[in-house]
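Ticket #4471: structure export looks truncated?
Reporter: QA, pipeline team
Priority: medium

Steps to reproduce: submit the single chain below to the structure queue and open the exported record.
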Amino acid sequence: MGGFFSGEFKLGAEPPLGHYWICAIVDGEQHEGSFQVAEYRKPEWVVEIEFDKEMYIAGDRLDATCKALYYFGAPVRNARVAYRVYRQPHGLFRPNCGRFGLRL
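Actual output as written to the record:
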């Protein structure tokens, strides 16, 4: 039988870097996973994207402006840009319409 569980715990302020392994025993079954603790490095720049509309419908033209700035304010020049567009199903349900709704 599959499933999942979740939880959280806090690492110390400066935990040793490296690979960690965690094990949980639930109803006599052992479940395990692992994660990596790496050194945090603040990015050198920030990327801002502004879209011409808040929402789009399949087939719409999307216009956006992308700005990349170093944290000290200067623009990142001649940067290579790659992007991906994802879609997400969206449901539209109106109150007082019974159990019927429209799934887009």
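Status: closed, not a bug. The export was complete when the record was re-opened. Leaving a note from the reviewer for reference: The chain has a mean pLDDT of 82.
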